[in-house]
Write a structure and sequence with these properties.
By secondary structure, the chain is mainly α. 41% of the residues lie in helices and 0% in strands. This is MCRI2 protein.
């Protein structure tokens, strides 16, 4: 089974309080429309992943099809995609260690 990932959820959907002296960059402001768009894309992608998983197990004959190049680019032979959730978790932990 795959290793478990660190997941950081916001309490009540709010950003954590940051003391003014710790802020090195301007505070990001998320509008309600932005959060709604992110939620829409996330939920739509979850549906696509479920449909792809169902297609692999033979449940569905139609639905999304995962694109695979017939002749892969040799320049991308050693490409390793980044696990963005893991990267953010490492950044978060590093920030905590630097502040303490």
């Amino acid at each position: 089974s795959p290793a478990q990932k660190l997941v950081f959820n916001r309490v009540n959907g709010k950003r954590p309080q940051v003391l003014p002296q710790q802020v090195s960059a301007p505070e990001e402001c998320y509008t309600l429309a932005h959060e709604e768009n992110v939620r829409f894309v996330y939920e739509a992608w979850q549906q696509v992943e479920q449909q792809l998983d169902g297609g692999r197990s033979g449940e569905s004959t139609c639905g999304p099809v995962q694109y695979v190049e017939k002749t892969p680019n040799p320049g991308l032979k050693n490409f390793v995609p980044i696990d963005l959730e893991e990267w953010w978790a490492q950044q978060f932990l590093a920030k905590i260690e630097n502040c303490s």
